[in-house]
Design goal:
Length: 830
């Protein structure tokens, strides 16, 4: 009973805990909804307040083009609040210096009717707003002129000017309002969009003309505060631009404020120049710029009022959180905050891409395991099950109609089973005796021995055919499993590459720029793609003239000194258009280089040889040479050998593991033809940074390394690809040295002396006696020797490939430049 009570209390506690969690989640959801509502309300209040000031704004003493333009844009962007905007615009115009609420209301009404008419025909779009604003303003203002006291060309001209200004302001507001409300999706603002925002804010300030507080004009304080804000965010150019735009629009609203344009532009320039010193320095620049011109053209009271207005603007700036300034700077091109946000955005994109690639990699790997498990289960079929299935099929076809069926399979089951097993063994081993030679034990037990054996032979043929196709299915599954695993591996490597490229390298790029400019060269941009040792890649944009080759002679040696490894020019790209910079790509210079030579001949002097060869750059500083010998001679052999090398090259260049790539090629050759077609593969992969070489031989002849007078054979014993599914891939690793020469050949060269001679010793002697070190001359000499050995008769397809490993010598030596320090490389992302 106590135990039950305890369990009951425990259940109640768990239920109470779950209930509390649900209540907390509901409270959090409600709080989140309330915060979202507050944010929406905040922007609504802001838009309504802007509408009030724009409704009150007047320029050129009588023009009010702001209201209907603002209403039209809000109608398309925030249709839920357009009645509030219309009311606020009319209320603002009521309190203007020259109230005109009736005409503003009429313009909004005509605009609304035009919009509703277009909506009836589904033609109302934001792109039509400027035209509709122009028409509504023109109609209402023309009506006011016609019912007025006087008609003149000047009145008509003012109507056209006001309608045109409303048209332009609509275009301005279309770009500015999304930025003002932070609903613009792009993280980068064009210069035109920044100017539109300035015009909107200056127009809003025009609505505050006439408001005086303690001798300070509200529009002057607001304009100077706005100037300081943008100067802190974007520097001197943006500060001066804001000063020009704000001063221009304020001077249109108040002719006595014409001097504001030059004064605010100069003050914005000084504030932007001093922004690195902080808010106080920028405020001092504003005070200095406004005071100089005011002292020059104003009275003592003007100087004091201007000073207090600047102090008030500076106080507002000091109260402004730095986060607001950073937010503005993030949208201004050219600022550090903007560059940082762009890099952060690119980093997030790379991270998301890498995560998705990893997920795809896991999917492919899981699919590979699934196919492998299916094959494993399919090959684990028991021998007893196969025998039982085979025996049931034979019994159904031979014993079903026999009158002795019950006696054989019920009374004498074990004797019948043993007899059938012996018959099956005879059929499987193809030693079925003739009818007269049937064993006594078979004929005495079964009167239909010949019929049973015939049925068994037929069933065995069906069984073999079934097993053949089952093997084909298993091999196809295995090919799919191997390919899926290889794709998974490549995608995993790709995700690592994406994450590694996402590292922030601003400091390193700036270090390179300062070092290059310290030599007197001017470059337009530096982008570091990779700083991993041995795999460096740096892009430099420049506008050097041709002929001096500064990239190879100066920049590459300088980068070699900064990075502590040899850097060379990988490629140079000319600009696509006149005036654009050229691109030079610098990369790690390889420590070793490979010089190759190839010679070959087709059997009987034909044009088409069954041998194929390839020389390929695999990326990552690896170079591969390969020879493939197809079965037989002629076009078909050429197709098999070239197909093997082509597929192998593509798989290796994609980043797939060498062993898996060879197995994939083997599976493809197995499945592409029902005939017996195979090809040998002799592959050598040289690491050009270390000279470490991996040899992979599949059914190929030995290769040889000539090191001075010594000749070293490289051999392996396995079958060519395309014969069996599970091939053995032999890897032989060797550390080559500068001056080593690798000789690879097909069997037409290696088997030239015949079986009576030790071919390996013969080939070592021929190679050792060669005096030349040029790869092409060695290949030609070896082929000529074999042809002469057969007295000019080419008995088989012959191909010889020679590759010489030498130390790479940079074209220009590294130099030490005073004041340039070694670069700190970031940690490699694992």
């Amino acid at each position: 009973m106590k135990k039950e009570n305890a369990l009951g209390r425990s259940g109640m506690r768990q239920g109470s805990f779950v209930h509390n969690l649900k209540e907390k989640a509901a409270e959090w959801k409600a709080a989140k909804g309330f915060m979202n509502m507050l944010m929406a309300k905040k922007w609504t209040f802001l838009l309504v307040a802007v509408a009030f000031l724009l409704g009150r704004a007047v320029i050129l003493e009588s023009l009010m083009p702001f209201a209907v333009a603002y209403f039209a844009v809000i109608y398309f962007m925030r249709r839920d609040i357009y009645p509030w905007i219309a009311a606020s615009l009319v209320a603002g115009s009521w309190l203007a210096a020259e109230p005109a609420p009736l005409w503003i209301a009429m313009e909004i009404a005509v605009m609304f009717l035009l919009l509703k008419a277009l909506e009836t025909y589904e033609k109302a779009e934001l792109s039509t707003a400027p035209i509709l604003v122009f028409i509504s303003t023109l109609l209402v203002q023309l009506f006011s002129v016609f019912i007025g006291d006087s008609l003149s060309w000047y009145s008509f001209m003012l109507v056209v000017v006001e309608a045109s200004l409303a048209f332009v302001l609509t275009l301005v507001f279309i770009h500015a309002i999304p930025v003002l409300t932070m609903t613009k999706k792009s993280a980068t603002l064009k210069h035109e969009e920044i100017i539109c925002v300035m015009i909107l804010l200056a127009s809003v300030m025009t609505g505050a003309v006439g408001w005086i507080l303690y001798g300070m004009s509200a529009e002057h304080v607001m304009s100077r505060y706005l100037l300081l804000l943008f100067a802190m965010a974007g520097g001197a150019p943006l500060g001066a631009s804001v000063g020009v735009v704000a001063g221009l629009i304020l001077s249109l609203a108040d002719f006595s404020a014409i001097v504001q344009m030059s004064m605010l532009a100069f003050a914005g320039l000084l504030a932007g120049l001093l922004r690195d010193g902080g808010k106080m320095a920028a405020a001092f620049g504003l005070l200095l710029g406004t005071s100089i011109l005011t002292i020059y053209i104003g009275t003592q009271s003007d100087v004091m009022n201007s000073t207090w207005e600047s102090v008030a603007a500076a106080t507002l700036l000091l109260l402004t959180p730095r986060g607001v300034i950073r937010t503005i700077a993030r949208y201004v091109p050219g600022t550090n905050e903007h560059a940082k946000s762009q890099h952060e955005y690119a980093k997030r994109v790379r991270e998301v891409t890498a995560e998705r690639v990893i997920k795809f990699s896991d999917v492919f790997r899981q699919l590979s395991r699934t196919f492998g498990q299916l094959n494993q289960k399919a090959t684990e079929v028991k021998r007893d099950d196969e025998i039982a299935s085979f025996m049931n099929a034979v019994a159904e076809r031979s014993c079903f109609s026999c009158h002795r069926r019950n006696a054989c399979w019920e009374d004498k089951y074990f004797h019948t089973y043993n007899m059938m097993t012996d018959m099956m063994a005879a059929v499987e081993e193809k030693r079925v005796p003739a009818a007269k030679d049937h064993p006594r034990s078979w004929t005495s037990h079964c009167g239909k021995t010949s019929q049973v054996l015939g049925v068994m032979q037929h069933q065995y043929e069906l069984y073999q055919n079934n097993m053949h196709w089952k093997k084909q299915i298993l091999e196809s599954r295995q090919l799919v499993a191997d390919q899926l695993y290889g794709v998974s591996q490549v995608m995993e490597d790709l995700s690592k590459e994406i994450r590694r490229e996402g590292q922030t390298l601003h400091l390193q790029e700036e270090q390179i720029r300062e070092a290059v400019e310290g030599l007197g060269l001017s470059i337009q941009g530096v982008d570091i793609v990779n700083l991993e040792e041995g795999n460096v890649e740096i892009e430099v944009y420049h506008s050097f003239e041709r002929g001096f080759d500064e990239c190879r002679k100066i920049i590459a040696p300088l980068l070699s000194d900064i990075l502590g490894e040899h850097i060379a020019v990988k490629s140079e790209r000319e600009p696509a258009k006149q005036g654009e910079p050229s691109l030079a790509i610098f990369a790690s210079a390889k420590q070793f280089e490979v010089e190759t030579g190839v010679a070959g001949a087709a059997k009987g002097g034909d044009l088409l040889s069954g041998d194929s060869f390839t020389l390929m750059e695999l990326g990552g500083g690896k170079f591969a040479v390969a020879i493939s010998d197809g079965m037989g001679n002629g076009e078909r052999a050429r197709q098999e050998s070239s197909a093997a090398l082509s597929i192998l090259q593509q798989l290796l260049q994609s980043g797939m593991d060498e062993k898996l790539a060879v197995k994939s090629v083997n599976s493809v050759l197995l499945l592409r033809s029902a005939e017996e077609m195979y090809a040998t593969v002799d592959l050598a992969i040289v690491d050009l940074y270390t000279a470490h070489t991996t040899f992979m031989k599949i059914g190929s002849t030995p290769s040889f390394i000539k090191r001075g007078k010594e000749v070293i054979p490289i051999t392996a014993n396995n079958l060519p690809i395309g014969i069996i599914q599970d091939i053995d891939v032999d890897f032989v690793s060797m550390q080559l040295q500068p001056g080593d020469t690798l000789i690879m050949m097909s069997d037409g060269i290696y088997d030239a002396p015949g079986y009576a001679v030790n071919k390996e010793m013969w080939m070592k002697r021929i190679i050792g006696e060669m005096s030349t070190e040029n790869p092409q001359e060695m290949a030609d000499a070896l082929l000529e020797t074999v042809v002469r050995y057969h007295e000019g008769d080419i008995v088989d397809d012959m191909t010889v490939l020679v590759a010489r490993i030498d130390k790479h010598l940079p074209e220009w030596a590294t130099f030490r430049w005073p004041g340039v320090s070694r670069m700190e490389r970031p940690r490699t992302v694992s």
